[in-house]
UniProtKB/TrEMBL annotation:
InterPro entries documented for this protein: 6-PTP_synth/QueD, 6-PTP_synth/QueD_sf
Pathways per UniProt: Purine metabolism; 7-cyano-7-deazaguanine biosynthesis
Family: Belongs to the PTPS family. QueD subfamily.
Species the sequence originates in: Occallatibacter riparius
Known cofactor(s): Zn(2+)
One Pfam family of this chain: PTPS
Keywords assigned: Lyase, Metal-binding, Zinc
Residue intervals passing through the bilayer: none
Full protein name: 6-carboxy-5,6,7,8-tetrahydropterin synthase
GO MF term (any one): metal ion binding
Phylogenetic classification of the source organism: Bacteria, Pseudomonadati, Acidobacteriota, Terriglobia, Terriglobales
Enzyme Commission identifier(s): 4.1.2.50
Catalytically driven reaction(s): 7,8-dihydroneopterin 3'-triphosphate + H2O = 6-carboxy-5,6,7,8-tetrahydropterin + triphosphate + acetaldehyde + 2 H(+)
């Protein structure tokens, strides 16, 4: 029997939305106050949903200790209390929450235990803004 398990995590990080390809005026027009040279921060909520077969011996899709370890190692240790602009994964992309969400998915997809599939990652930036990523579809990969 296949089932889903979801878990939420929090981290605090700062970023500045800015593209070197844009002039200062274009950055202000595109990113508004989020392009402040001093940056700004968020208390992000990251939701991870995995799918797998319920293991008869344990009655679980995944041991939450294993999922916590993967998220802590791949995501929380790296990004919590960090400036996203300084992370090597964001040197060639603007650290928008859309890009953070996709990056977290990519970091976790191979870190979850064998037999469990990462369904999606959702990142809440504020109480009003959230972003969700389900992985690259075959259309995106083409």
């Amino acid at each position: 029997m296949s089932a889903y398990f979801g878990r939420r995590y929090t981290l605090s990080a700062s970023h500045r939305l800015h593209s070197d390809a844009f002039t200062p005026e274009q950055n202000r027009a595109v990113y508004g106050k989020c392009s402040n040279p001093h940056g700004h921060g968020h208390n992000y909520v990251i939701e991870v949903l995995v799918r797998g077969e319920v293991v008869p011996d344990t009655g679980m899709v995944i041991n939450l200790v294993d999922l916590d370890a993967a998220v802590r190692t791949q995501v929380l240790t790296r990004f919590d209390h960090a400036n996203l602009n300084l992370d090597p994964l964001f040197t060639s992309q603007v650290p928008t929450t859309e890009n953070l969400c996709r990056t977290v998915f990519e970091l976790l997809k191979d870190a979850v235990p064998v037999g469990v599939a990462l369904e999606y990652v959702r990142v809440e930036e504020t109480e009003n803004n959230f972003f969700q990523y389900f992985g690259a579809s075959s259309a995106e990969a083409a």
